[in-house]
From TrEMBL:
GO molecular function: flavin adenine dinucleotide binding; N,N-dimethylaniline monooxygenase activity; NADP binding
Annotated keywords: FAD, Flavoprotein, Monooxygenase, NADP, Oxidoreductase
Annotated family: Belongs to the FAD-binding monooxygenase family.
Keyword Flavoprotein applies: yes
Pfam families according to UniProt: FMO-like (PF00743)
UniProt name for this protein: Cyclohexanone monooxygenase
Coiled-coil regions listed in the entry: none
Protein backbone atom coordinates (compact mmCIF):
# COMPACT_ATOMS: atom_id res chain seq x y z
CA UNK A 1 0.00 0.00 0.00
CA UNK A 2 3.01 2.32 -0.02
CA UNK A 3 2.07 3.67 -3.42
CA UNK A 4 -1.61 4.39 -2.71
CA UNK A 5 -2.64 7.25 -4.98
CA UNK A 6 -4.55 10.24 -3.55
CA UNK A 7 -7.90 10.67 -5.25
CA UNK A 8 -8.16 6.96 -6.06
CA UNK A 9 -10.73 4.56 -4.57
CA UNK A 10 -9.44 1.10 -3.66
CA UNK A 11 -11.84 -1.86 -3.58
CA UNK A 12 -11.32 -4.25 -0.66
CA UNK A 13 -13.01 -7.10 1.12
CA UNK A 14 -12.19 -5.58 4.49
CA UNK A 15 -10.58 -2.46 5.93
CA UNK A 16 -9.01 -2.45 9.38
CA UNK A 17 -8.60 0.95 11.04
CA UNK A 18 -5.76 0.87 13.56
CA UNK A 19 -2.48 -1.04 13.75
CA UNK A 20 -2.08 -1.80 17.44
CA UNK A 21 -2.52 -5.18 19.16
CA UNK A 22 -6.05 -5.50 17.77
CA UNK A 23 -5.53 -4.22 14.23
CA UNK A 24 -2.41 -6.32 13.66
CA UNK A 25 -4.04 -9.59 14.71
CA UNK A 26 -7.23 -8.71 12.79
CA UNK A 27 -5.26 -8.09 9.60
CA UNK A 28 -3.49 -11.44 10.05
CA UNK A 29 -6.80 -13.28 10.51
CA UNK A 30 -8.43 -11.61 7.50
CA UNK A 31 -5.53 -11.92 5.08
CA UNK A 32 -3.61 -14.99 6.12
CA UNK A 33 -6.42 -17.18 7.44
CA UNK A 34 -9.59 -16.08 5.60
CA UNK A 35 -7.71 -15.15 2.42
CA UNK A 36 -9.46 -11.79 2.07
CA UNK A 37 -8.12 -8.68 0.38
CA UNK A 38 -7.67 -6.62 3.53
CA UNK A 39 -5.68 -3.51 4.37
CA UNK A 40 -5.03 -1.70 7.66
CA UNK A 41 -4.62 2.06 8.00
CA UNK A 42 -3.26 4.06 10.92
CA UNK A 43 -2.64 7.77 11.39
CA UNK A 44 0.63 7.01 13.19
CA UNK A 45 4.02 6.84 11.52
CA UNK A 46 4.50 3.24 12.66
CA UNK A 47 2.59 0.23 13.90
CA UNK A 48 2.01 -0.38 17.61
CA UNK A 49 -1.06 1.67 18.50
CA UNK A 50 -0.88 2.81 22.12
CA UNK A 51 2.74 1.70 22.31
CA UNK A 52 3.73 3.83 19.32
CA UNK A 53 2.37 7.03 20.85
CA UNK A 54 3.09 6.56 24.55
CA UNK A 55 6.89 6.89 24.59
CA UNK A 56 7.02 8.93 27.79
CA UNK A 57 9.65 8.10 30.46
CA UNK A 58 8.63 5.12 32.56
CA UNK A 59 6.02 3.74 30.15
CA UNK A 60 5.47 0.13 31.20
CA UNK A 61 2.76 -2.53 30.94
CA UNK A 62 0.90 -3.13 34.18
CA UNK A 63 -0.06 -6.65 33.11
CA UNK A 64 2.66 -9.23 33.70
CA UNK A 65 4.79 -10.00 30.69
CA UNK A 66 3.89 -13.68 30.37
CA UNK A 67 0.27 -12.69 29.64
CA UNK A 68 0.89 -9.32 27.97
CA UNK A 69 1.34 -10.83 24.51
CA UNK A 70 -0.44 -12.89 21.91
CA UNK A 71 -1.21 -16.54 22.65
CA UNK A 72 -2.49 -17.64 19.21
CA UNK A 73 0.96 -18.82 18.03
CA UNK A 74 2.96 -20.92 20.48
CA UNK A 75 6.14 -20.60 18.41
CA UNK A 76 5.86 -16.80 18.61
CA UNK A 77 5.35 -17.11 22.36
CA UNK A 78 8.41 -19.33 22.72
CA UNK A 79 10.53 -16.79 20.84
CA UNK A 80 9.40 -13.66 22.72
CA UNK A 81 12.47 -12.53 24.69
CA UNK A 82 10.92 -10.54 27.54
CA UNK A 83 13.03 -10.81 30.66
CA UNK A 84 11.18 -8.65 33.20
CA UNK A 85 7.93 -9.04 35.11
CA UNK A 86 6.45 -6.01 33.31
CA UNK A 87 7.40 -4.87 29.82
CA UNK A 88 8.89 -1.46 28.90
CA UNK A 89 7.26 0.43 26.03
CA UNK A 90 10.23 0.05 23.68
CA UNK A 91 10.18 -3.74 23.98
CA UNK A 92 6.42 -3.94 23.36
CA UNK A 93 6.80 -1.75 20.27
CA UNK A 94 9.65 -3.92 18.95
CA UNK A 95 7.54 -7.04 19.60
CA UNK A 96 4.57 -5.70 17.62
CA UNK A 97 6.85 -4.71 14.74
CA UNK A 98 8.26 -8.23 14.80
CA UNK A 99 4.75 -9.71 14.63
CA UNK A 100 3.93 -7.54 11.60
CA UNK A 101 7.02 -8.84 9.80
CA UNK A 102 6.57 -12.44 10.93
CA UNK A 103 3.17 -12.64 9.20
CA UNK A 104 4.11 -10.53 6.15
CA UNK A 105 1.67 -7.77 7.01
CA UNK A 106 3.78 -4.65 6.55
CA UNK A 107 3.04 -4.13 2.86
CA UNK A 108 -0.68 -4.22 3.69
CA UNK A 109 -0.50 -1.45 6.32
CA UNK A 110 -0.93 2.14 5.19
CA UNK A 111 0.66 4.44 7.80
CA UNK A 112 0.20 8.19 8.31
CA UNK A 113 -3.32 7.66 6.99
CA UNK A 114 -6.20 8.56 9.28
CA UNK A 115 -9.89 7.80 8.73
CA UNK A 116 -11.85 11.06 8.41
CA UNK A 117 -15.27 9.66 7.53
CA UNK A 118 -16.96 6.35 6.83
CA UNK A 119 -20.35 5.87 5.23
CA UNK A 120 -22.41 2.73 4.67
CA UNK A 121 -24.34 2.26 1.44
CA UNK A 122 -27.32 -0.09 1.79
CA UNK A 123 -27.72 -0.67 -1.95
CA UNK A 124 -24.21 -2.05 -2.42
CA UNK A 125 -23.73 -3.25 1.15
CA UNK A 126 -20.34 -1.56 1.37
CA UNK A 127 -18.49 0.97 3.46
CA UNK A 128 -16.79 3.95 1.85
CA UNK A 129 -13.95 5.22 4.04
CA UNK A 130 -12.21 8.50 3.30
CA UNK A 131 -8.82 9.42 4.71
CA UNK A 132 -6.75 12.50 5.43
CA UNK A 133 -4.40 11.42 2.62
CA UNK A 134 -7.06 11.71 -0.06
CA UNK A 135 -7.13 7.94 -0.50
CA UNK A 136 -10.58 6.32 -0.39
CA UNK A 137 -11.37 2.68 0.40
CA UNK A 138 -14.55 0.82 -0.41
CA UNK A 139 -14.96 -2.41 1.51
CA UNK A 140 -17.62 -4.90 2.50
CA UNK A 141 -16.39 -5.13 6.09
CA UNK A 142 -15.08 -2.37 8.34
CA UNK A 143 -13.20 -3.33 11.50
CA UNK A 144 -12.17 -0.55 13.85
CA UNK A 145 -9.29 -1.05 16.25
CA UNK A 146 -9.15 2.59 17.33
CA UNK A 147 -7.91 1.88 20.85
CA UNK A 148 -9.48 2.43 24.26
CA UNK A 149 -6.92 5.06 25.19
CA UNK A 150 -5.85 7.05 22.16
CA UNK A 151 -8.05 10.18 21.89
CA UNK A 152 -5.87 12.51 23.97
CA UNK A 153 -7.49 14.76 26.54
CA UNK A 154 -5.66 18.09 26.83
CA UNK A 155 -6.81 20.40 29.65
CA UNK A 156 -7.83 23.97 28.84
CA UNK A 157 -6.24 26.51 31.18
CA UNK A 158 -6.15 30.24 30.40
CA UNK A 159 -2.88 31.21 28.72
CA UNK A 160 -1.69 27.74 27.72
CA UNK A 161 -0.85 29.06 24.26
CA UNK A 162 1.56 31.59 25.79
CA UNK A 163 3.81 29.05 27.52
CA UNK A 164 7.36 29.52 26.22
CA UNK A 165 8.59 26.04 27.20
CA UNK A 166 7.63 22.63 25.82
CA UNK A 167 3.99 21.61 26.29
CA UNK A 168 3.43 17.87 25.72
CA UNK A 169 0.80 15.19 26.28
CA UNK A 170 2.08 11.80 27.37
CA UNK A 171 -0.03 10.16 24.64
CA UNK A 172 1.82 12.06 21.88
CA UNK A 173 5.35 12.06 23.24
CA UNK A 174 8.03 13.80 21.13
CA UNK A 175 11.10 11.65 20.68
CA UNK A 176 13.50 14.61 20.86
CA UNK A 177 12.45 15.69 24.37
CA UNK A 178 15.23 15.46 26.96
CA UNK A 179 14.09 16.18 30.53
CA UNK A 180 17.54 16.08 32.13
CA UNK A 181 18.23 19.23 34.13
CA UNK A 182 14.83 20.73 33.29
CA UNK A 183 12.18 22.25 35.54
CA UNK A 184 9.28 19.91 34.83
CA UNK A 185 5.60 20.20 35.72
CA UNK A 186 3.29 17.18 35.50
CA UNK A 187 -0.48 17.58 35.52
CA UNK A 188 -2.16 14.30 36.42
CA UNK A 189 -1.26 11.36 38.65
CA UNK A 190 -3.14 8.36 37.32
CA UNK A 191 -1.28 5.37 35.91
CA UNK A 192 0.62 7.44 33.33
CA UNK A 193 1.32 10.37 35.65
CA UNK A 194 2.50 7.93 38.29
CA UNK A 195 4.99 6.38 35.83
CA UNK A 196 6.27 9.62 34.31
CA UNK A 197 6.72 11.33 37.71
CA UNK A 198 8.66 8.36 39.11
CA UNK A 199 10.92 8.10 36.06
CA UNK A 200 11.50 11.84 35.57
CA UNK A 201 12.24 12.98 39.13
CA UNK A 202 15.77 11.48 39.24
CA UNK A 203 16.90 13.40 36.13
CA UNK A 204 14.95 16.69 36.41
CA UNK A 205 16.35 19.78 38.07
CA UNK A 206 12.98 20.10 39.76
CA UNK A 207 9.66 18.32 39.31
CA UNK A 208 6.30 19.72 40.40
CA UNK A 209 3.32 17.38 40.49
CA UNK A 210 -0.05 19.11 40.04
CA UNK A 211 -2.42 16.60 41.60
CA UNK A 212 -6.21 16.72 41.61
CA UNK A 213 -7.09 13.42 43.30
CA UNK A 214 -4.69 11.31 45.40
CA UNK A 215 -4.50 7.71 44.23
CA UNK A 216 -4.11 4.32 45.83
CA UNK A 217 -1.05 2.64 44.37
CA UNK A 218 0.92 -0.46 45.35
CA UNK A 219 4.42 -1.50 44.25
CA UNK A 220 4.74 -3.03 40.80
CA UNK A 221 7.49 -5.32 41.98
CA UNK A 222 9.12 -5.17 38.58
CA UNK A 223 12.24 -7.33 38.40
CA UNK A 224 14.22 -9.65 36.17
CA UNK A 225 12.56 -13.02 35.62
CA UNK A 226 14.56 -16.07 36.58
CA UNK A 227 15.49 -18.81 34.10
CA UNK A 228 13.16 -21.10 36.06
CA UNK A 229 10.23 -18.66 35.62
CA UNK A 230 10.94 -18.39 31.88
CA UNK A 231 10.97 -22.15 31.58
CA UNK A 232 7.73 -22.49 33.58
CA UNK A 233 5.93 -19.93 31.41
CA UNK A 234 6.86 -21.88 28.29
CA UNK A 235 6.28 -25.37 29.66
CA UNK A 236 2.93 -24.37 31.18
CA UNK A 237 1.76 -22.50 28.09
CA UNK A 238 -1.57 -24.34 27.69
CA UNK A 239 -2.40 -24.36 31.39
CA UNK A 240 -1.51 -20.69 31.84
CA UNK A 241 -3.66 -19.51 28.93
CA UNK A 242 -6.50 -21.83 29.89
CA UNK A 243 -6.45 -20.22 33.33
CA UNK A 244 -6.42 -16.72 31.78
CA UNK A 245 -9.41 -17.49 29.54
CA UNK A 246 -11.39 -18.95 32.44
CA UNK A 247 -10.64 -16.18 34.92
CA UNK A 248 -12.23 -12.80 35.49
CA UNK A 249 -9.57 -10.16 34.85
CA UNK A 250 -7.27 -12.34 32.67
CA UNK A 251 -4.13 -11.24 34.51
CA UNK A 252 -2.50 -14.64 34.90
CA UNK A 253 -3.29 -15.31 38.56
CA UNK A 254 -6.11 -17.05 40.40
CA UNK A 255 -8.58 -14.51 41.76
CA UNK A 256 -9.32 -14.93 45.44
CA UNK A 257 -12.50 -16.64 46.62
CA UNK A 258 -11.84 -15.65 50.25
CA UNK A 259 -13.99 -12.86 51.79
CA UNK A 260 -12.06 -10.21 53.70
CA UNK A 261 -13.72 -10.75 57.06
CA UNK A 262 -13.60 -14.55 56.94
CA UNK A 263 -10.02 -14.42 58.28
CA UNK A 264 -8.51 -12.82 61.37
CA UNK A 265 -7.09 -9.27 61.31
CA UNK A 266 -3.60 -10.76 61.62
CA UNK A 267 -4.17 -13.04 58.62
CA UNK A 268 -5.56 -10.12 56.58
CA UNK A 269 -2.45 -8.12 57.32
CA UNK A 270 -0.23 -11.03 56.34
CA UNK A 271 -2.04 -11.48 53.00
CA UNK A 272 -1.94 -7.75 52.21
CA UNK A 273 1.75 -7.59 53.11
CA UNK A 274 2.67 -10.65 51.05
CA UNK A 275 0.89 -9.22 47.99
CA UNK A 276 2.39 -5.77 48.55
CA UNK A 277 5.85 -7.37 48.47
CA UNK A 278 5.02 -9.44 45.37
CA UNK A 279 3.66 -6.37 43.60
CA UNK A 280 0.91 -5.68 41.10
CA UNK A 281 -2.17 -3.46 41.27
CA UNK A 282 -4.61 -6.04 39.95
CA UNK A 283 -3.10 -8.70 42.21
CA UNK A 284 -3.65 -6.49 45.26
CA UNK A 285 -7.29 -5.81 44.39
CA UNK A 286 -8.31 -9.27 43.14
CA UNK A 287 -5.82 -11.87 44.44
CA UNK A 288 -5.93 -10.93 48.13
CA UNK A 289 -9.67 -11.13 48.84
CA UNK A 290 -12.81 -11.69 46.80
CA UNK A 291 -14.85 -8.68 47.92
CA UNK A 292 -12.59 -5.60 47.76
CA UNK A 293 -14.35 -4.39 44.62
CA UNK A 294 -17.86 -5.18 45.86
CA UNK A 295 -18.10 -4.63 49.62
CA UNK A 296 -17.54 -1.19 51.10
CA UNK A 297 -16.22 -2.43 54.44
CA UNK A 298 -13.84 -4.87 52.75
CA UNK A 299 -12.72 -2.08 50.43
CA UNK A 300 -11.97 0.16 53.40
CA UNK A 301 -9.81 -2.54 55.00
CA UNK A 302 -7.62 -2.70 51.88
CA UNK A 303 -7.58 1.09 51.62
CA UNK A 304 -6.46 1.44 55.25
CA UNK A 305 -3.52 -0.88 54.59
CA UNK A 306 -2.36 1.24 51.63
CA UNK A 307 -2.83 4.45 53.64
CA UNK A 308 -0.62 3.00 56.40
CA UNK A 309 2.04 2.26 53.80
CA UNK A 310 1.90 5.83 52.50
CA UNK A 311 2.30 7.07 56.08
CA UNK A 312 5.37 4.86 56.53
CA UNK A 313 6.97 5.95 53.25
CA UNK A 314 6.34 9.72 52.92
CA UNK A 315 8.37 11.73 55.43
CA UNK A 316 6.93 15.27 55.15
CA UNK A 317 3.57 15.47 56.99
CA UNK A 318 1.96 17.95 54.58
CA UNK A 319 3.07 16.05 51.49
CA UNK A 320 1.86 12.84 53.12
CA UNK A 321 -1.56 14.41 53.75
CA UNK A 322 -1.88 15.51 50.12
CA UNK A 323 -0.85 12.08 48.81
CA UNK A 324 -3.19 10.07 51.04
CA UNK A 325 -6.55 9.19 49.47
CA UNK A 326 -9.63 9.11 51.67
CA UNK A 327 -12.21 7.88 49.18
CA UNK A 328 -12.99 4.38 47.90
CA UNK A 329 -10.24 2.19 46.49
CA UNK A 330 -12.30 1.71 43.32
CA UNK A 331 -10.49 3.13 40.33
CA UNK A 332 -8.38 1.14 37.91
CA UNK A 333 -5.87 -0.45 40.33
CA UNK A 334 -2.45 1.20 40.03
CA UNK A 335 1.05 -0.07 40.66
CA UNK A 336 4.32 1.85 40.71
CA UNK A 337 8.10 1.74 40.81
CA UNK A 338 8.59 3.99 43.83
CA UNK A 339 5.91 6.65 43.38
CA UNK A 340 5.43 7.63 47.03
CA UNK A 341 9.20 7.48 47.69
CA UNK A 342 9.69 10.02 44.87
CA UNK A 343 8.04 12.72 47.01
CA UNK A 344 10.81 12.40 49.60
CA UNK A 345 13.29 13.78 47.06
CA UNK A 346 14.39 17.40 47.67
CA UNK A 347 13.81 18.29 43.99
CA UNK A 348 10.12 17.20 43.98
CA UNK A 349 7.15 19.27 45.14
CA UNK A 350 3.42 18.60 45.19
CA UNK A 351 0.53 20.98 44.53
CA UNK A 352 -2.99 19.89 45.44
CA UNK A 353 -5.02 21.64 42.73
CA UNK A 354 -8.33 21.02 44.51
CA UNK A 355 -7.08 23.13 47.42
CA UNK A 356 -4.90 25.43 45.31
CA UNK A 357 -6.27 25.42 41.74
CA UNK A 358 -4.34 26.27 38.59
CA UNK A 359 -5.36 29.82 37.71
CA UNK A 360 -3.46 30.25 34.46
CA UNK A 361 -0.47 29.30 32.39
CA UNK A 362 2.01 32.07 31.58
CA UNK A 363 5.12 32.31 29.46
CA UNK A 364 7.16 31.22 32.51
CA UNK A 365 4.98 28.42 33.90
CA UNK A 366 1.86 27.81 36.00
CA UNK A 367 0.24 30.30 38.37
CA UNK A 368 -1.83 28.76 41.18
CA UNK A 369 -4.62 30.39 43.19
CA UNK A 370 -2.29 31.32 46.04
CA UNK A 371 -0.38 33.59 43.61
CA UNK A 372 2.65 31.32 43.27
CA UNK A 373 4.37 31.16 39.88
CA UNK A 374 5.77 27.67 39.34
CA UNK A 375 8.51 28.26 36.78
CA UNK A 376 8.77 25.48 34.23
CA UNK A 377 10.78 24.51 31.18
CA UNK A 378 8.48 21.59 30.31
CA UNK A 379 4.80 21.08 31.09
CA UNK A 380 3.65 17.47 30.78
CA UNK A 381 -0.09 16.76 30.59
CA UNK A 382 -0.64 13.23 31.91
CA UNK A 383 -4.35 13.96 31.70
CA UNK A 384 -5.47 10.79 30.01
CA UNK A 385 -7.87 10.20 27.20
CA UNK A 386 -11.44 10.60 26.07
CA UNK A 387 -11.63 6.86 26.63
CA UNK A 388 -13.47 4.15 24.69
CA UNK A 389 -15.73 6.23 22.43
CA UNK A 390 -13.56 9.33 22.06
CA UNK A 391 -11.91 8.24 18.82
CA UNK A 392 -15.23 7.20 17.31
CA UNK A 393 -17.19 10.39 17.83
CA UNK A 394 -14.30 12.51 16.52
CA UNK A 395 -14.79 10.90 13.10
CA UNK A 396 -17.89 11.13 10.92
CA UNK A 397 -19.06 7.50 10.85
CA UNK A 398 -22.47 7.23 9.15
CA UNK A 399 -24.53 4.04 9.10
CA UNK A 400 -27.90 3.13 7.69
CA UNK A 401 -30.45 5.91 7.07
CA UNK A 402 -27.69 8.49 7.40
CA UNK A 403 -27.43 8.19 11.19
CA UNK A 404 -24.02 9.11 12.58
CA UNK A 405 -22.40 7.15 15.36
CA UNK A 406 -22.23 10.36 17.38
CA UNK A 407 -26.03 10.69 17.08
CA UNK A 408 -26.50 7.00 17.88
CA UNK A 409 -24.44 7.48 21.04
CA UNK A 410 -25.95 10.82 22.07
CA UNK A 411 -26.99 9.35 25.44
CA UNK A 412 -23.71 7.49 25.91
CA UNK A 413 -21.79 4.84 23.96
CA UNK A 414 -23.57 1.52 23.50
CA UNK A 415 -22.93 -1.76 21.69
CA UNK A 416 -23.64 -5.44 21.72
CA UNK A 417 -20.67 -7.38 23.12
CA UNK A 418 -18.41 -4.34 22.73
CA UNK A 419 -18.13 -5.19 19.03
CA UNK A 420 -21.31 -4.34 17.11
CA UNK A 421 -23.87 -1.57 17.14
CA UNK A 422 -27.35 -1.36 15.64
CA UNK A 423 -27.64 0.53 12.35
CA UNK A 424 -23.98 0.04 11.42
CA UNK A 425 -23.91 -3.17 9.36
CA UNK A 426 -20.75 -5.23 8.88
CA UNK A 427 -18.89 -2.83 11.17
CA UNK A 428 -17.08 -4.54 14.01
CA UNK A 429 -15.26 -2.76 16.83
CA UNK A 430 -12.26 -4.17 18.69
CA UNK A 431 -12.52 -2.88 22.27
CA UNK A 432 -15.66 -0.87 21.55
CA UNK A 433 -17.90 0.35 24.40
CA UNK A 434 -19.07 -2.25 26.92
CA UNK A 435 -16.41 -4.79 26.10
CA UNK A 436 -14.65 -6.70 28.90
CA UNK A 437 -12.61 -4.91 31.58
CA UNK A 438 -9.53 -7.14 31.69
CA UNK A 439 -5.91 -7.48 30.72
CA UNK A 440 -6.29 -6.36 27.12
CA UNK A 441 -4.36 -8.82 24.89
CA UNK A 442 -6.56 -11.81 25.87
CA UNK A 443 -9.73 -9.74 25.32
CA UNK A 444 -8.38 -8.48 22.00
CA UNK A 445 -7.62 -12.03 20.87
CA UNK A 446 -11.08 -13.16 21.96
CA UNK A 447 -12.78 -10.38 20.03
CA UNK A 448 -10.63 -10.64 16.90
CA UNK A 449 -11.23 -14.38 16.69
CA UNK A 450 -14.98 -13.92 17.13
CA UNK A 451 -15.10 -11.13 14.51
CA UNK A 452 -13.15 -13.33 12.10
CA UNK A 453 -15.55 -16.22 12.68
CA UNK A 454 -18.52 -13.90 12.19
CA UNK A 455 -17.16 -12.47 8.95
CA UNK A 456 -16.59 -16.02 7.73
CA UNK A 457 -20.22 -16.83 8.59
CA UNK A 458 -21.46 -13.82 6.61
CA UNK A 459 -19.33 -14.81 3.63
CA UNK A 460 -20.48 -18.44 3.56
CA UNK A 461 -24.15 -17.97 4.48
CA UNK A 462 -25.16 -15.88 1.48
CA UNK A 463 -25.94 -12.96 3.77
CA UNK A 464 -25.12 -9.47 2.51
CA UNK A 465 -24.60 -7.91 5.90
CA UNK A 466 -25.50 -8.23 9.56
CA UNK A 467 -25.91 -5.81 12.41
CA UNK A 468 -26.81 -6.07 16.09
CA UNK A 469 -30.53 -5.81 16.79
CA UNK A 470 -31.55 -2.61 18.53
CA UNK A 471 -33.24 -4.38 21.44
CA UNK A 472 -30.18 -6.59 21.90
CA UNK A 473 -27.94 -3.54 22.12
CA UNK A 474 -30.24 -2.05 24.75
CA UNK A 475 -30.31 -5.30 26.72
CA UNK A 476 -26.49 -5.60 26.64
CA UNK A 477 -26.11 -2.01 27.81
CA UNK A 478 -28.48 -2.72 30.69
CA UNK A 479 -26.61 -5.92 31.55
CA UNK A 480 -23.31 -4.05 31.69
CA UNK A 481 -24.85 -1.36 33.89
CA UNK A 482 -26.43 -3.91 36.24
CA UNK A 483 -23.15 -5.77 36.70
CA UNK A 484 -21.17 -2.54 37.20
CA UNK A 485 -23.56 -1.39 39.89
CA UNK A 486 -22.99 -4.61 41.82
CA UNK A 487 -19.44 -3.29 42.27
CA UNK A 488 -18.01 -0.15 43.88
CA UNK A 489 -16.40 1.12 40.65
CA UNK A 490 -19.26 3.46 39.60
CA UNK A 491 -18.95 5.28 42.94
CA UNK A 492 -15.46 6.57 42.07
CA UNK A 493 -14.94 9.42 39.60
CA UNK A 494 -12.85 7.55 37.06
CA UNK A 495 -11.98 7.60 33.36
CA UNK A 496 -13.55 4.15 33.01
CA UNK A 497 -16.90 5.92 33.35
CA UNK A 498 -15.90 9.07 31.43
CA UNK A 499 -15.52 11.23 34.55
CA UNK A 500 -12.20 12.76 33.41
CA UNK A 501 -13.77 14.62 30.46
CA UNK A 502 -15.54 17.91 31.37
CA UNK A 503 -19.18 17.78 30.29
CA UNK A 504 -19.10 14.10 29.33
CA UNK A 505 -22.04 12.10 30.61
CA UNK A 506 -21.10 9.52 33.23
CA UNK A 507 -21.89 6.13 31.76
CA UNK A 508 -20.88 2.49 32.11
CA UNK A 509 -18.38 1.67 29.36
CA UNK A 510 -17.21 -1.83 30.29
CA UNK A 511 -18.56 -5.33 30.84
CA UNK A 512 -17.39 -6.25 34.34
CA UNK A 513 -18.65 -9.84 34.27
CA UNK A 514 -15.21 -11.31 33.56
CA UNK A 515 -13.60 -12.85 30.50
CA UNK A 516 -14.82 -16.41 31.21
CA UNK A 517 -18.48 -15.44 31.13
CA UNK A 518 -17.87 -13.09 28.20
CA UNK A 519 -16.29 -15.85 26.12
CA UNK A 520 -19.23 -18.13 26.93
CA UNK A 521 -21.70 -15.51 25.65
CA UNK A 522 -19.71 -15.13 22.43
CA UNK A 523 -19.59 -18.89 21.89
CA UNK A 524 -23.35 -19.17 22.35
CA UNK A 525 -23.99 -16.36 19.87
CA UNK A 526 -21.85 -17.98 17.17
CA UNK A 527 -23.00 -21.58 17.74
CA UNK A 528 -26.66 -20.50 17.54
CA UNK A 529 -26.05 -18.69 14.22
CA UNK A 530 -26.23 -15.12 15.54
CA UNK A 531 -29.81 -14.87 16.85
CA UNK A 532 -29.15 -11.35 18.18
CA UNK A 533 -28.19 -10.00 14.77
CA UNK A 534 -30.40 -8.86 11.90
CA UNK A 535 -29.45 -9.41 8.25
CA UNK A 536 -29.96 -7.30 5.16
CA UNK A 537 -32.84 -9.62 4.23
CA UNK A 538 -34.55 -8.91 7.57
CA UNK A 539 -34.13 -5.15 7.26
CA UNK A 540 -34.70 -4.57 3.56
CA UNK A 541 -37.67 -6.94 3.27
CA UNK A 542 -40.88 -5.47 4.72
CA UNK A 543 -42.34 -7.52 7.54
Amino acid sequence: MDNAVPGKTYQLDALVVGAGFGGIYMLHKLRNELGLDAVAIDRAGGVGGTWFWNKYPGALSDSESFVYQYSFDRDLYEQTPWNTKYVPQAEILAYLNGVVDRYDLREHVRLETGMTEAEFDEASGTWTVRTDRGVTFQSRFLVTGLGLLSATNLPKFPGMETFAGRLVHTGAWPEDLDLAGKRVGVIGNGSTGNQVITATAPVAAHLTSFQRTPQYSVPAGNRQLTAQEHRAHRENFEANWEQVKNSSVAMGFEESAVPTFSVSPQERERIYQRTWEEGGGFRFMFETFSDIATDQDANEEAAKFIRRKIAEIVTDPETRRKLTPTDLYARRPLCDSGFYETFNRPNVSLVNVKENPIESVTEQGIVTADGTLHELDVLICATGFDAVDGNYVRVNIRGRDGETLKEHWADGPTSYLGMATSGFPNMFMILGPNGPFTNLPPSIETQVEWISETISHVLTSGTGWIEAKSETESDWTETCSDIAHQTLFPQAASWIFGANIPGKKRTVMFYLGGIKQYRSILADEASNKYPNFATDADILTPA
